[in-house]
Amino acid sequence: MPEAPDATAIQNPATGEVIERLELAGPAAVDAAVLAARKAQPDWGAATPGERAAVLNRVATLLQERAEDFAAVETRQCGKPIRLSREFDVPGTADNATFFAGAARVLEGKASGEYSAAHTSSIRREPLGVIGSIAPWNYPLNMAGWKVFPALAAGNAVVIKPAEITPLTTVMLARLFEEAGLPDGVLGVVVGTGPVAGEALVSHPEVDMVSFTGSTPVGKRVAELAARGPRRVHLELGGKAPFLVFDDADLEAAVHGAVAGALINGGQDCTAATRAYVQRPLYEQFVAGVADVLGTVRMGDPADPATDLGSLISARQAQRVHGFVSRALAAGARAVRGGSAPDGAFYSPTLLVGAAQDAEIVRDEVFGPVLVVLPFDSDEQGLALANDTRFGLAASAWTRDVFRAGRASRELAAGCVWINDHIPIVSEMPHGGIKASGYGKDMSAYALEEYTAVKHVMTENTGIARKDWHRTVFGAGGGSDV
Ligand code: NAD
Questions:
Q1: Which of 40, 195, 251, 302 is deepest in the core (most CB within 10 A)?
Q2: How far does residue 45's CA lie from ligand 1's centre (Å)?
Q3: If we measure between CA atoms, which residue out of 175, 152, 37 comes closest to residue 101?
């Protein structure tokens, strides 16, 4: 039977099995969720930070209690290995909730004081109101947490639209909030497509801020729509992270780091290691080492704890990845590993060499288990090649030399630079890019601040009617006695 146009079938990409059918939200459902959020926000915004923290902490506890359910559903809807869902997606999200519960209670600002002799100034950080959030499919639960926790911690109401192919754990998270006592309307989930529900949300006149994570082209469209408000926009977009290996690096660490950084979540990670630049003396050994380690990767049933690499998000995505690889091969690159046609949504880990710096495979986001390795000679050249990209989300440098490490951390143009590692994140530190990777930060106190408006309150404290500064308006002897 053909699908009704207003319904979506959520599929397990690894098996093609339909897991659930959901109604798709249209503009009316988005409108209802936004208006409910608008109505609920003032009371939530007036709750004390401690009260908001209590709800977030309860959500973290419930998430830990139901960790196995969440991990199983995340794996089923995404095709990602269950080990990743169990050890990263779910505990990382719970940790994020507890971080923002604590952060809600320690908002910072400039000290109150007399910055003019006649006035006392103080800073208030207030919620913005209703946040419209849009999330991608690669880490659905984690991305929902990154959007929802800081926004709620700061006293906002949120309407979130998950990717329509992976909405299940976001809907489950919203149920945990209900159970944890979040008042009705403060958090709404609309499951719908980008062009319909997404555009209705970011264009809604009652949405005060738009927070988007997804691809750069869609991010541009979202920013255009939000600018019509105008309303604040936060964009977490694509990446093409370089992985820079200097000739004094620990080769074993770099090889394992490159494979892990390239294959995590099937390479469907905005910070994944995608372009490895290796200084000439280590180049051959690095390529051979990566090829060896890739040979040990077990691709298979995502639900099996022994699986390293599950399926990609869809057979379509696997075809898209293969399109990139095929064009790279046609343009002169060589596949040291992989490169073969996909099997449904499964794509073998692929190692390419011999691509040109200006080739599509080196410049564009592939979002699959594909690593390209290129050689470089001088440090200057390596840094220049790494920075030769329109993206700026993440980068790593591998060296045992403290001066090279310091230089790389200063000169690599990205929102995050790792030294001798690639991928780890912590709730206390910000995540977000520069250039075409967007602007704004997720996680950390910086994210909390982004979901607040800074208000300056200035109180005149002399009680003098005719103020000295009035001379700039009335001139000498101006004004009149009243
Ligand atoms: P996408 O841009 O296709 O979709 C992201 C979300 O936007 C989805 O919910 C989608 O339904 C919605 N959307 C699509 N068209 C829309 C429109 N016209 N108006 C409003 N919303 C619309 O991205 P994706 O394929 O789901 O995710 C992969 C992308 O996300 C990659 O580019 C990846 O790098 C990026 N990403 C970035 C970060 C980060 O933190 N910077 C994190 C994860 C993923």
A1: 302
A2: 29
A3: 152
Tens digit of each residue's pLDDT (9 = 90 or more) over 205-262? 999 999 999 999 999 999 999 999 999 999 999 999 999 999 999 999 999 999 999 9
Please determine, looking at this structure, whether the domain spanning 7-237+433-457 carries the CATH number 3.40.605.10: yes
Those residues with Cβ within 8 angstroms of residue 298's Cβ, 6 or more apart along the chain or in another chain: 306, 307, 308, 309
Where are the domain boundaries for CATH 3.40.309.10 in the chain? Answer: 241-419
3-state SS assignment for residue 244: strand
Prior bond of 230 cis (ω within 30°): yes
- Ligand 1 within 6 A of CB of 218: yes
What residues pair up with 376 in beta bridges, in sequence order? Answer: 279
CATH says 241-419 is which class?
alpha beta
Q: Is 236 a residue of the active site?
A: yes
Q: Whose CA is nearest to atom 14 of ligand 1?
A: 194
What pLDDT is stored for residue 383 in this prediction? 98
For the chain, where do the domains classified as CATH 3.40.605.10 start and end? 7-237+433-457
Task: Please give the pLDDT value at position 315.
Answer: 97
Task: Spell out, as residue ranges, where the chain has pLDDT lower than 50.
Answer: 1-4
Atom of ligand 1 nearest to the CA of 239: 34
The one-letter code for the residue type at 348 is: S
Please tell me if the CB atom of residue 234 comes closer than 6 angstroms to any atom of ligand 1.
no
Assess whether the C-beta atom of 213 lies below 6 angstroms from ligand 1: yes
270 given a catalytic annotation: yes
Q: Which ligand 1 atom sits closest to the C-alpha of 431?
A: 40
